[in-house]
Amino acid sequence: MPTPATTPAARYAGASIALHWLMAVLLAATVATIEMKGLYPKGSALRDLLKTAHFMLGLSVFALVWVRLLARSLSSTPPILPAPPAWQARLGHLVHGALYVLMIGLPLLGWLALSAKGKPVPLLWGLELPQLITESKETSHRLKDMHEALATAGYALVGLHAAAALVHHHLVRDNTLRRMLPGSR
Fold it and tell me: Read out DSSP for 20-80?
C-alpha cells in the first residue's frame, strides 16, 4: 500500500497551477493588445500604447515560460486517471511541447523582427532590449510574417488544448482538467 510520501499527487503543484493560469491571462492579453491596435490610426497614441503593451506582455510570457519550465522540472506530473490511450498521451505531450516552443519562439521572433526593423524593444523604466541583428527591411518583413503565422498556429493549438481539457472533463470524465484547476487540494 502506498504511503503518503509515495502516493502520486492528484494535482499539479501550486506554483505550476498559478503559472499556467497567469500565462493563459498573459497570452490572452498579448493577443488582445495586438488585435485592438488595428482599431486605431497609425501614429495615434493609443495604437502606440497597445503595441508597447503587446511587446511588454510578450516579453513577460518569454520570461515566465522559463520559470514555468523550471517549476515543471522540480515537481512531478500527476497521472491522468483513468489513464488515456497511449496515442492520446503522445498527442497531449506533442501539443504541450509545441505550446512551449511557441511561448519561447514567438517573443524571440518579435524581438528579432523589431531589431531588423531598427525599432527599440521597450522594457520598464525607459530601458530597452539590445538589438539582436543588423537592420534589414527584408529580414524584418520575413520575421514578422513568421511571427504572425506562428501566432495563428498558436491560436489553433491553444484552442485544441482547451477543447481537449473540456472533452476530458465533460465527456471522458477523467481528472485531466481537475489536476490544473486552482483551488483547494
Answer: HHHHHHHHHHHHHHHHHHTTS-TT-HHHHHHHHHHHHHHHHHHHHHHHHHHHHHHSPPPPP
Residue whose C-alpha cell is 493563459: 24
User: What is the rounded distance in angstroms from the CA atom of residue 51 to the CA atom of residue 29?
Assistant: 12
* CATH number at 14-180: 1.20.950
Taking only the tens place, the pLDDT of each residue in 161-183 is: 999 999 999 999 999 999 999 98
The amino acid at residue 1 is: M
Distance separating alpha carbons of residues 184 and 176, to the nearest angstrom: 16
Q: Is the peptide bond before 78 cis (omega within 30 degrees of 0)?
A: no
Count of Cβ atoms closer than 10 Å to residue 111 Cβ? 22
Domain boundaries, the chain: 14-180
pLDDT tens profile 55-99: 999 999 999 999 999 999 999 899 999 999 999 999 999 999 999
